Amino acid sequence: MRLRSTVAAGLFSLAFLVAGCGRFPTHPMETYVPPDQNVDFQSLYNTNCRACHGVNGENGPAMDLANPEFEASIDDATLRSIITSGMPGTQMPAWAQSAGGMLTDAQVNALVSGMRKQWQKPDPFQGAAPPPFAQPIGPSAKSQAADVSQGHQLYQAHCESCHTGHARQQLTSPIYLALVSDQALRSIIIAGRPDIGQPDWRHDNGQLSPQDVTNIVAYLSSLRTNATISAPAVPLSSRR
Ligand code: HEC
Ligand code: HEC
After folding, report:
1. Is there a contact between 146 and 136 (Cβ–Cβ < 8 Å)?
2. C-alpha of 227 from chain center
3. In angstroms, what CA-CA distances link 169 with 119, 172, 191?
4. Rounded mean pLDDT, 185-210
5. Closest residue (by CA) to atom 19 of ligand 2?
6. What is residue 43's predicted lDDT score, i.e. its pLDDT?
7. Does the Cβ of 102 fall within 6 Å of ligand 2?
8. Each residue's pLDDT tens digit, 73-98
9. Of 232, 239, 219, 214, which Cα lies nearest the Cα of 172?
10. Residue 116 and residue 232: Cα distance in Å, rounded?
C-alpha cells in the first residue's frame, strides 16, 4: 500500500507541476508566424528545397546551389523565374502561388536574396566570362544554332573519358535524359558540381566555348526518345 500511495503522490505532484506550468509561464510564448508569412531563408530552404538540393545547398540529388560558380552564372531574374515556375522536364516544381505552388512572392524573394547572401562569392571565375546561362530552345536550337554532330565530337573529346563504364552516370542513356532538362545539363556543364566531382566548363586545358556547350547539350538532347518513361521518385541518378 505504501508503494501505491507514493506513486499516487508522485502523480499528484506531477499533475500539479504540469498545471503550474500553464498558469505561471516562465518563458514568454514564442511568436507564432503563419507559414505564408515566414520569410526566414534558412527555414524556407530547409522546408522546401533541402530534400533535393541538399543540406546547405550541396550533395543533394539535384543541382549544387551553394556552388559560387552556379550563383555567378545565373542572374536574379532567371533565378527568381526558375523558383517561381520550376523547370519543365525535371522534378523541379513551381513554387510561387501565382504558378500553382505554395510560396508567396515575398518568400520567393527571400529565397533569392538568402541564396545570394549565403553562397555568392566575388569573382569565382577569376576573370573568365562563363558561357551564357540559358540553353537556346525551340526548333532553331536543334537545327541551326546548335550542331548535333559537332556536339557528338565534343562529347567524345571532353566527356566520354569520365562518363564511360559503370562508375559514372551514363549521360547518353535515354532514361537518364528523360529526367533532366537541357537547361539542367547546361548549368552542370558550365558551373560544374564541385560537391560530386563534376568539373566546370574550363576543365580540359582551355575551355569550352559557348557554342561548344550549346552543341554538347544539343547532342545529348538528340538522344532523348519520345517514349514515355515512368520516372522513379528520385529525380536523378543516385550517386553515393
Ligand atoms: C523534388 C525535388 C526538388 C525540390 C524540392 C526543389 N528542387 Fe530545385 N531542382 C530540382 C531538379 C531535379 C532540378 C533540375 C536538375 C538539376 O539542375 O540538377 C532543379 C533545379 C533548380 C534550379 C536551377 C538549377 C539549374 O540547373 O540551372 C534552381 C535555382 C533550383 N532548383 C532552386 C530550388 C529552390 C530554391 C528550391 C526550394 C524552394 C528547390 N529548387 C526545390 C529538384 C528540386
Ligand atoms: C574529370 C572527369 C569528368 C569529366 C571530364 C566530365 N565529368 Fe561529368 N561528372 C563527373 C563526376 C565525377 C560526376 C558525378 C558522379 C556521376 O554522376 O557520374 C559527374 C556528373 C555529371 C552530371 C550529373 C549527373 C547526374 O547524376 O545528375 C552531368 C550532367 C555531367 N557530369 C555532364 C558532363 C558533361 C556533359 C561532360 C563533358 C562536357 C562531363 N560531364 C565531363 C566527372 C566528369
Report:
1. yes
2. 26
3. 27, 9, 18
4. 91
5. 198
6. 97
7. no
8. 999 999 999 999 999 778 999 999 99
9. 219
10. 32
Q: How far is CA 164 from CA 16, 115, 203, 204, in A?
A: 69, 34, 17, 17
Q: Is the CB of 169 under 6 A from ligand 2?
A: yes
Show the cell assigned to 81.
523565374
Would you give the distance in Å from CA 55 to the centre of its chain?
11
Extract the C-alpha cell encoding 88: 519543365
Query: Average pLDDT, stretch 32-42?
Result: 93
Which triple of cell numbers denotes residue 127? 576573370
99 lines ligand 2 (CB under 6 A): no
- For residue 43, what is its C-alpha cell? 527555414
C-alpha distances (whole Å) from 185 to each of 81, 99, 192 are: 18, 24, 10
Cβ-count burial of 136 within 10 angstroms (0-12 exposed, 13-18 middle, 19+ buried)?
middle
As a whole number of angstroms, the distance between CA 132 and CA 37 comes to 35
Those residues whose C-beta lies under 8 Å from the C-beta of residue 87, and which sit 6 or more positions away, are 181, 183, 184
Rounded to whole angstroms, the Cα distance separating 34 from 36 reads 6
Which residues, at least 6 apart from 40, have a Cβ–Cβ distance to it below 8 Å? 110
Integer-rounded Cα radius of gyration of the chain: 25
Q: What's at 165, amino acid-wise?
A: G
Cα 155 from Cα 172, distance rounded (Å):
10
Ligand 1, atom 43, residue with closest C-alpha:
92
